From TrEMBL:
Superkingdom in the source lineage: Bacteria
Keyword NAD: no
Domain N-acetyltransferase: 1-131
Signal peptide: none
Keyword set, alphabetical order: Acyltransferase, Transferase
Native source organism of the sequence: Roseivivax marinus
InterPro entries per UniProt: Acyl_CoA_acyltransferase, GNAT_dom, NSI-like
Pfam family, one: Acetyltransf_1
The name this protein goes by in its record: Acetyltransferase
SUPFAM superfamilies: Acyl-CoA N-acyltransferases (Nat)
Length: 131
């Protein structure tokens, strides 16, 4: 298996498809295009031309950044791709964002161990969202 890594955003269709096969919430194509275009940084991994993993950083480039869209094709899980994607996002943020920039993420309970291993802390509080 030959994997290639890139900092290039995926095409909208393959982004939507990776989200679908990983059980993530659906995004409208126009919203996905806008989101991808406005990413601070993107990490993708491919087997040949096929998108098999990705992650993004979004934010204001100064005070706040958030890790989003960490997704690995189910056929490729268990190989450390999610950890490597997240590490590449962290490395980029340390090199490119101010040291005082707060980098956060919202994690599913089953993923806490991975994120803690890479330096994230679990914070108590309340997540609010508007739909």
């Amino acid at each position: 298996m030959s994997l290639s890594w890139s900092d290039e955003a995926p095409a909208v269709g393959e982004y939507i498809e990776l989200r679908r096969i990983t059980g993530m919430e659906r995004r409208a194509p126009s919203a996905a295009a806008e989101g991808l275009r406005n990413s601070l940084h993107v990490v993708t991994v491919r087997e040949r031309a096929r998108l098999v993993g990705m992650g993004r950083l979004v934010g204001d480039r100064g005070c706040f950044a958030q890790v989003v869209d960490i997704a690995v094709d189910p056929e490729f899980r268990g190989q450390g791709l999610g950890t490597e994607i997240l590490q590449r996002l962290i490395d980029w943020s340390k090199a490119e964002l101010p040291a005082s920039c707060h980098v956060n993420l919202i994690a599913e309970p089953g993923a806490f161990a991975l994120y803690k291993k890479l330096g994230f802390e679990i914070r108590t509080g309340m997540e609010l969202s508007v739909s």
